[in-house]
Amino acid sequence: MSHPPVEPWPCALSIAGLDPSGGAGIAADLRMFHAAGVWGCAALAVVTVQSTAGLVSASNLDPCLVADQAREVLRHERVRAIKTGALGSAANVRAVCSILRDHPDIPAVVDPVMIATRAPTGARLLDAEALEAMRELMRLSGLVTPNLDEAEALAEMRIASCDDLSRAARALVGAGARAALVKGGHLDEGPMVDVLAIGRRLIRFVGPRLPMPPFHGGGCSLASLVAGRLAWTGRSDDAAIVEAVRFGRRRLRRALRHAVSIGQGLLVLP
């Protein structure tokens, strides 16, 4: 008995690290892909020893293995967006650059996970010498989503105000990124401000700060929500990127309102 063909679901592929607590990294990415309505695929680049209480250590996978995982998925599944997170080494970043060059039709959202010194559990998750490779990955992406520390490193400037956020976003686009969303959540005071630079446009997203304890995995979650939305719409034009950022911020804010504790460390996002 023959069966009618089944239409494949749109997929989003995460190339990132493993957080055993499930609060960040690939586990968070897969949760947010599901929230965006798409199937989540994953290629592992870094294995960490960590919990919501902090990072203990990180071990990088071989770049050939990272690339082979991603290429096998891309060869057989209906991948319509790629999201990258912690890659760990310059060699792994270069391997992912090669993948993006081979698939220029698939939009990539790059969360340039490097260092998060402002966070209570902040630690370096990328070799210092990998910064230039990360800049090349940024230039191959559809959108780069740095936090303050990452934006300072990529744009080579100090960020201390909302105006600095705008200057950094413009600087990243000027350095070759198609679009840059600089997240201002770690600014010391005032409302929550994120700035998106795309083409000649500069869009400020402003909202009140939620009164809540520190949480884990916000950057991973936002980038994967945006990538998931791009996969769901099947579009990658500027208007689609702006809409995906709006969707991601809206859905992330809802997750923040329902953040949970799973033990002794930071809250995590459902």
From the structure above, extract its key features:
8 helices, 11 strands, alpha/beta, UDP-N-acetylmuramoyl-L-alanine:D-glutamate ligase, 270 residues
Give a verbal description of the structure.
The chain is an alpha/beta fold and 270 residues long. It has a single domain, classed as UDP-N-acetylmuramoyl-L-alanine:D-glutamate ligase. Helices cover 39% and strands 23% of the residues. The chain is built from 8 helices and 11 strands. It has helices at 25-35, 63-76, 90-102, 131-140, 148-155, 162-174, 218-233, 238-257; strands at residues 11-18, 39-51, 54-60, 79-84, 108-110, 143-144, 179-183, 192-198, 201-207, 215-216, 267-268. The strands form 3 sheets. The protein has a 6-stranded mixed beta sheet, sandwiched between helices. Helix 3 (90-102) links the parallel strand 4 and strand 5. The longest helix is centred in the last third of the chain and has 20 residues, at 238-257. It is globular.
